[in-house]
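Re: that backbone. Tokens:
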């Protein structure tokens, strides 16, 4: 909380052109630590999911050609929020200073005595052409770039004379915010001497799953755009470099290009899956249907961790369980060797990988992360360790885990104690609905819990959205909830799930 005498700082942050991966590291860090985020309409909603739980989020974007707030009121709002909060992020599409009115906002803050910083962003003027395979400069074709707007200031609405002057500028021309007067703008360039045969292209919703690219010439682009139904937000590129697109269009060749995929893992766990899907061209939206929370009985959990070194076996059935167990373990013990001589069992490769990060090797692990497979693996390997009858075992689990493992180990005369390491709670339903409103081509579920909470949050799938499941248990849960998976990972691993998603769309191609 700041005060009028000591206001907080306003950070004018460029959100980039649309792909959340193109924001700067600095910009993402500021969003994650902000007390208040004031954002525009074109800001990817995924970025709002990076905010802290109690961060105030204010939408000042433009809808239907009209701003929710006029610019003067946005300026006043930023000043007001800076006097209420320590850190205010003004999140703007593209770059704050490139036709983004960031300069106006900075001047208003300066005049009000509010400290501010500017975090540049990747502009669609550069990213749009790049994602369409068009380099805006090329030393064999042009060494000059002109970026202009087709939308003038309110008191200078007639921008066409300025556009006419650009006809004599050599090199590539990139027009932003020009779709409303596209035909007039292109006509002015031709009338001022540019050839109608000059290559031209338009990129709509650049860098997102909705990206569309249309090639034409200066003389035919307006008709082609009208026929194709392309509108804002779009970037127009004019110049010989447009012809390089057929050779340099890298993005459309990626297997998941043009697909928007929702990942329902928790924010902490979604990284690997999201990065893998994005590397294949997908636009990824992280939507946590659940949150990992501490167990209700903290004392019992702590006692179990302290006593863990006295067991013959420790059984881990999830990466979350591994994380929470060792976070608690190292608050009590300084050395991993204090875990004693316990053998380690892990439910699948994902859990085993989390153990390996801590230098813990696994004695028993099924290839599929299914409780039935873990018990079967104990049975298959019984001769290797003399069976588990009368062995003491500590099962590290979630509060809502099914009791199959406990029942089956007990049947085999093992002495099993439960260590409830964490519980799960629903995610942010409002944010989830916001993401779903933008549509999706597929949604991934990596656990039964994520599926159950999806339904408990009152969510429903967008039209045409298909389901990718991590494995048979998750698939069974989905079916019980009347959500029928379209594809299932062969192994309970992130790479296998990514392969399944690719299979899902390879059928369409």
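Recovered sequence:
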């Amino acid at each position: 909380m700041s005060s009028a005498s000591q206001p907080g700082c306003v950070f004018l942050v460029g959100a980039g052109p649309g792909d959340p991966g193109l924001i700067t590291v600095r910009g993402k860090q500021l969003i994650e630590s902000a007390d208040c985020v004031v954002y525009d309409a074109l800001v990817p909603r995924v970025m709002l999911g990076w905010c802290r739980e109690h961060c105030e989020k204010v939408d000042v974007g433009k809808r239907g050609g009209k701003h929710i707030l006029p610019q003067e009121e946005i300026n006043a709002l930023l000043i007001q929020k800076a006097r209420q909060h320590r850190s205010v992020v003004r999140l703007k599409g593209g770059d704050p200073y490139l036709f983004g009115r960031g300069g106006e906002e900075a001047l208003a803050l300066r005049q009000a005595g509010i400290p501010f910083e500017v975090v540049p962003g990747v502009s669609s003027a550069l990213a749009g052409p790049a994602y369409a395979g068009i380099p805006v400069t090329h030393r064999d074709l042009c060494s000059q770039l002109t970026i202009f707007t087709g939308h003038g200031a309110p008191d200078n609405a007639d921008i066409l004379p300025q556009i006419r002057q650009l006809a004599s500028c050599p090199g590539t021309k990139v027009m932003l915010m020009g779709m409303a007067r596209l035909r007039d703008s292109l006509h002015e360039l031709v009338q001022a001497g540019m050839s109608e045969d000059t290559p031209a292209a338009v990129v709509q919703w650049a860098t997102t799953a909705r990206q569309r690219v249309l090639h034409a010439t200066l003389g035919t682009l307006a008709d082609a755009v009208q026929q194709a139904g392309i509108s804002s937000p779009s970037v127009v590129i004019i110049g010989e470099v447009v012809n390089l697109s057929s050779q340099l269009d890298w993005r459309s060749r990626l297997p998941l290009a043009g697909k928007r995929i929702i990942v329902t893992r928790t924010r902490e766990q979604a990284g690997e899956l999201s990065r893998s899907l994005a590397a294949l061209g997908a636009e990824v939206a992280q939507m946590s249907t659940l949150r990992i929370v501490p167990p209700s009985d903290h004392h019992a959990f702590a006692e179990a961790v302290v006593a863990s070194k006295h067991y013959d076996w420790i059984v881990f059935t999830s990466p979350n369980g591994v994380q929470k167990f060792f976070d608690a373990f190292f608050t009590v013990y300084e050395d991993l060797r204090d875990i004693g001589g316990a053998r380690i069992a892990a439910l699948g490769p994902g859990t085993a990988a989390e153990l390996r990060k801590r230098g813990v090797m696994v004695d028993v692990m099924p290839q599929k992360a299914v409780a039935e497979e873990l018990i079967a693996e104990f049975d298959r390997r019984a001769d290797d360790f003399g069976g588990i009858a009368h062995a003491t075992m500590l099962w590290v689990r979630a509060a809502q885990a099914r009791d199959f493992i406990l029942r089956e180990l007990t049947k085999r005369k093992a002495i099993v104690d439960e260590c409830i390491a964490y519980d799960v709670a629903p995610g942010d339903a409002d944010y989830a609905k916001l993401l779903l409103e933008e549509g999706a081509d597929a949604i991934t579920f990596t656990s039964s819990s994520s599926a159950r909470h999806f339904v408990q949050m009152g969510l429903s799938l967008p039209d045409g959205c298909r389901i990718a499941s991590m494995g048979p248990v998750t698939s069974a849960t989905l079916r019980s909830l009347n959500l029928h998976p379209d594809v299932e990972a062969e192994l309970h691993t992130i790479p296998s799930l990514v392969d399944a998603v690719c299979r899902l769309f390879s059928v369409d191609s």
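The chain is about 35% helix and 20% strand. The mean pLDDT is 91.
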